[in-house]
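Re: Re: ligand-bound prediction request (bumping)

Still looking for help on this. To restate: I need the protein modeled with pyridoxal-5'-phosphate bound, output as structure tokens. Inputs repeated here so nobody has to scroll up.
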Amino acid sequence: NMNDNTRIDTQAIQAIDGAHYLHPFTDNQALGKKGARVMVKGEGIYVWDSEGHKILDGMSGLWCVNVGYGRKELADAAYKQLLEMPYYNSFFQTTNIPAAQLAKLLTEVTPPQFNHVFFSGSGSEGNDTVVRMVRRYWDLLEQPQRKVIISRHNAYHGSTMCGASLGGMSGMHAQGDLPIPNITHIEQPYWYENGRDMDPDAFGIKAAGWLEAKILEVGPEKVAAFIGEPVQGAGGVIIPPKTYWPEIQRICDKYGILLVSDEVICGFGRLGEWWGCEKFGYKPDLMTFAKGVTSGYVPLGGVMVGDRVANVLLEKGGEFNHGYTYSGHPVACAVAIENIDIIRREHLVEKVREETGPYLKEKFEALADHPLVGIAETCGLVAGLVLVKDKKTLEAFDSALEVGMVCRGHMFGNGMIMRAVGDRMIIAPPLVITRAQIDEMVALIRLCLDKTY
Ligand code: PLP
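Reply:
Sorry for the wait, this slipped through. Here it is.
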């Protein structure tokens, strides 16, 4: 019984939580006074809190629970591996069975240029690996001056020093003296904010042009790589015009710069293809993944290393002085293997592409008729809408985040999780969501918009 909360003393948990647990990205003093919501159970696309409230998780946790909650197959895979060989890594010429098998499996579900993988424990660590690997690559090619990595404002690439430096979140840069040297940013391909006076496809070309301008400003011989999320997730589900990525690819090719796709959110079917780069038609040299690789059940991340880079590292590299205690963790890899098997046997990528993605598009974009909504857009199973003060001019609220937080509050109160990012409200539901559940979710969004209006 999901509502059996008789054994949970919510206030006692909140008290020790408030006293001792510093939550990430949280004003902990404010949270301590209010008390964190205690989440106790998940099943399918729903989660339950300790007070028995059933909540539709429109965010898949943090964009990761792609196959939904309560999957016994994943628990079994972990249990079996935990009993057999819970951990082994030495960095000294050993391997384990799930890590080797997952490495092969990943090369099967990624584009053909990928035949190697480097494992990490998270997306942030994956991007730290990218920074070191990219610079190592250019050192080995005797172009050590190529150190600069170009990223974008409002990008999110993680919370480690490299991840937060690659990211373009000013609030993060302001804490901890970031970015680290030789990382620079260009403006994001956000039509609503940066190109509303233009046709979106023309804007896509213009926004990609900012990369070329930056390359020329830095000096092409100094640029090592460009990194981007196919669709910016944490930045607010910023979906680029379709012209953007092919033009980015052309510019990277022109200057011989490595192209890195951060697929931590977009990978494993979120956009209706296995990878965001497949959806948008570009061919990265490196790809960061995490989240959806295990549907978040256990931590795992990594970098898919394309042949262009792998061949240099293998042939000229010798030892790459880099690795994590949990690189290739057998339990995480065993769960990932089963998770990928679920995605395949339940045809989740095809389902998003052909059924639930188009259905969400139809239902979610219809929210644009609401007086509070400027634009509402989707890409596979991510979606975002802009809250506007004036529908005609698309003028934003002065305190857009406050309005978003009010809206988010109504969401929680009415049994749904949706995230507020500035003036945008965003969702990324589990890939197992059904049409009927999409109807339920969109009806809840409309209800909360009505209450916010
Ligand atoms: N890259 C992207 C695109 C992400 O969205 C995230 C997390 O949200 C990360 C990297 C960092 O991953 P992690 O939180 O697993 O370190």
